[in-house]
Amino acid sequence: MVDAGQGTSSLEDAELAEIDAWWRAANYLAVGQIYLLDNPLLERGLVPEDIKPRLLGHWGTSPGLNLVYAHLNRLIRRRDVNAIFLAGPGHGGPAAVANAYLEGTYSELYPRVGFDKDGMKELFRQFSFPGGIPSHVAPETPGSIHEGGELGYVLSHAYGAAMDNPDLVVAAVVGDGEFETGPLAASWHSNKFLNPVTDGAVLPILHLNGYKIANPTVPARIHREELESLLRGYGHEVLTVEGDDPADVHRQMAAAMDRAYGTIAEIWRAAREDGDVERRPWPMILMVTPKGWTGPKVVDGLPVEGTWRAHQVPLSGTRDNDEHRAQLEEWMRSYRAEELFGADGVLVEELQRLAPTGTRRMSANPHANGGLLTKPLRLPDFRSRAVEVTAPGASIHEPTRVLGEYLVDVVRDNPTNFRIFGPDETASNRLDPVYAVTDKVFAGNIVDTDEHLARSGRVVEILSEHTCQGWVEGYTLTGRHGLFSCYEAFIHLVDSMFNQHAKWLKTTRDIAWRPQVPSLNYLLSSHVWRQDHNGFSHQDPGFIDHVVNKRAEVVRVYLPPDANTLLSTMQHCLESRHYVNVVVSGKQPSFDWLTGEEADLHCARGAGIWEFASNDEGDPEVVLACAGDVPTLEVLAAVKILREALPDLRIRVVNVVDLMRLQDETEHPHGMTHADYDNLFGTDVPVIFAYHGYPWLIHRLTYRRANNQHLHVRGYKEEGTTTTPFDMVMMNDMDRFHLVMDVIDRTPSLGSRAASLRQEMVDTRRRARQWTREHGDDLPEVRDWVWTPEGEDPTRGRSPSVTAAATTSADF
C-alpha cells in the first residue's frame, strides 16, 4: 500500500467542509432523482404523491462517483487540469447528472431544467421517467462519452480518448463488478501504448464497494496484497483511499489526487523536456468505501448500507409504505439540503464557486463532446493511388495492399488525428505499406529483432478485439478519426460493443448540442472465402447481419469487388460522420475490374449494371447479381461459360457495392426506389444473386421488391474447412458451375436446350472436387482462369453501369 499523503498538501478544514458540502449536495440530488416527483426541497413532509410510481435507478455506486467528482473538481481548480470523467459503473447516472447540474452545465443545455427549485423538480421528475432520461450515464448527460450500460469498456474508452490529447487527463472509475469482465481485464494493458510525449494520461480509480447486484465482487474478496500486486503488475502505482468516515476519506482522497497528478505531470515533464520515455508506473487510486454509503443502514430489519441490497433502490415501498417513506425523508434530510440550497432552490454561492469555470468543467469539456473538436482529415484523391486497369480482369492486385499505399498518404498528412487500430493484423491484412511513414506504438521493451516497433506511431495493435474497439470508440468520440482492421470471423467478439456504440450514435443524432463525430470504420479482411489455410474456425461472415439490425441512420455496409472500388469506398468512409461503416475486402491477389473513374462512378451509385459483362441490350432473360469480391469473380466466370455455350441468352450482370441500396428507400437513406430497383433487376426475370455472406440477408433486404419471388441467392451456408479457395465456394454451392446450373434451372426461355450444359456443370464440379483431393490445388482451368470471353475485345463496354441504375446512394 502506498501512502497517498506522502509529499502532498493537506486538506484544510474549511476546504474539507466545502468539498463535503458539494458531496452532500450531489448525494441529495442523486437520491431525489431516483425517488421524487415533487417537493424537491422537502419543504413539507413527504406524501405518497411526491414519490414516483416506478422506482428505477442505482444508488449503490452513486456516493462513490460523487466523491471522485468532487475531488477531481478540486484538482482542476488548483492545478488548471484539463480533465474528463468516465463512469465505468454507468448505472450511476444519478451521480453524473447531479454533478453536471451542480456545475450549471445541465441548465445551460436544458433550459427547462433550471438552476432553481422548479428546475430541481424537473431534474428529479425526468430521471428514469417516460419521456425523460435514462438511468445510465447516457448520451443525454453532459460530459459523457461512456454510457456504461454494458460493463467492461471504461479503460479502453479512456485510453482512446487520451491518445493524441497531450494535456488531457481522463479519470476513469472502474466498478469492482466491472473489474471481473474480460474486456476490462485486457484493457489494463492499455498503458503500454501511451506515449507520454504526445498523449494524455488516464487515471484509473478502482472503486471497491464490495458487491454487484446480488453477489460479492471478486476483487473485494481476495487478499488486499494479492489485488494490489495484480494492479502493480499491470503497471500502476497504487494509491489506496479507504474508510467510511467522510472527513477521513476526504483527506485521503485529496492527498491521493494531488499525488496522482503530481506523478502524471512528472512523467510528462521527463518525457517532453528530458526525452525520458522509459515506461514508469502510472498512478491509480484504489478507493474502498461502503456500497450505498450514507444511505439507509437497515431496512425492514435487514442490513443495507455496505451490502448488495444497496445496489439499486434501497427503499422500494416508499409510495405505499409509510415506514419506508419516513426512512426516505430521514435519509434525504441527513444531507441538510437547507445548508446547500437557498429557499429558491439555487445552490448557495460558496458551493457554486467550487465548480471549475467554462470548459474546465468536466460536464462542459469539449473532449467529452468530440464533434466540437473534429477536424476533417486531409485526404488525397484516391485516384492518385488507383491501379491502372487497361481492361476488365487484365491485371491482378491485392486490394488491401493497394489500400495500404493510400493510407500511407493519410497517415503522413494527418499526423495527430488519425490512427489504425487492430489485433496484430495490420501486416496480415496487407496494410503494412504504412510502415514506410509510421511505426507501431509500444511502451514495453523493444529488442533488436523487432520491426516497426517504437515509442511513437500511428498504428496501435493489441491482441484483444475488445480493447481495439474501445480505443477506436474513445478516439472517435473525442473528435479524431480511426480505422479498425480485423479478421472478419473474429470481429464478432465486439458484437456487444458495436451495439452500444451504434445506439450511442443513434441517440446523439437527436441531441442538438452534440455535433456529429467521425465515423467508426471497420475494414474486415481475411474473410470467409479466403480462409482456406485456417479453415472452418475462421469462416464467418455474420457480422454484417448483426450490423444491419441497427438503425438505418447510423449503419453502412460496403462490399467493394476490387482494389479501386475499395479505395473509393474507404475515402468516402474516412470523410463521413456519425456512422458505423463496415467494409469487407479480400487481401489475396484478385482481378481488377474497374478503372479509378469507373470505380468512383460505380461506388457513388452503389449498385449498377456492368455492361462489359452483359449482353442483354436492355431486355434480360436472366440477371446475375453479385456483392463481394469472390461472388463477383464466380458470377463473371459463370457468365463467361454461359456466353460461350449459350451466346443467344440475354444476360445482365449487376454488381452491388453498397448493400443498403437493396433496401426500400423508406427503410434506409441509401435505399433505392421501387422504380430504380425494378429497372436494375427487372420485375419478372430470374435473378441469381451470389452474395458474400449468409444468403437470407439478401432476401430480408429485398422482401418488399416486386420480383422477390424470382430471387435466388447463393452465399455462405456454414460449410467450410481447410481446403482450396475454389473448393470452399463449391462447398457452399456458390461456385461458377453451380451458378450456371441455377441459371439453367430458373430461366424459362432455356427449356431443355441447355440440358447438356447442365450435365457438363455437374460433371465438372465432381471433377474439380476430385482434383483438389488428389493434387491439393484447384483445377488448372479454375486456377488459371481469365475473364475475356473468347473472340471478344477486352475493352468492349467499359462503362460499369447504365442509365437504368443512374440514381446514386444518398450520401456516398
How would you describe the overall organization of this protein?
The chain is α/β, with parallel strands linked by helices and about 800 residues long. It folds into three domains: about 15-365, Rossmann fold; about 380-435 and about 465-590, Rossmann fold (3-Layer(aba) Sandwich), CATH 3.40.50; about 605-805, Rossmann fold. It is about 35% helix and about 15% strand. Helix 9 links the parallel strand 4 (about 235-240) and strand 5. The relative contact order is 0.09. Mean pLDDT is about 95; it is low at about 1-5 and about 795-805.
Layout of helices and strands, plus pairs?
Blueprint: H1 13-35, H2 62-79, E1 82-87, H3 93-102, H4 105-109, H5 117-126, H6 154-162, E2 168-175, H7 182-187, E3 201-208, H8 224-233, E4 236-242, H9 246-273, E5 282-288, E6 298-299, E7 302-303, H10 322-333, H11 337-340, H12 349-352, E8 396-397, H13 399-413, E9 418-422, E10 440-441, E11 453-454, E12 459-461, H14 465-477, E13 481-487, H15 495-508, E14 520-525, H16 543-547, E15 555-558, H17 563-575, E16 580-584, E17 590-591, H18 596-605, E18 607-609, E19 622-627, H19 629-645, E20 651-656, H20 674-681, E21 687-691, H21 696-701, E22 711-714, H22 725-731, H23 736-746, H24 755-775, H25 780-783
Parallel strand pairs: 1-2, 2-3, 3-5, 4-5, 9-12, 9-13, 10-11, 13-14, 14-16, 15-16, 19-20, 19-21, 21-22
Antiparallel strand pairs: 6-7, 8-17, 18-20
Helix pairs in contact: 1-2, 1-3, 1-5, 1-9, 2-3, 2-9, 6-14, 13-17, 17-18, 19-23, 23-24
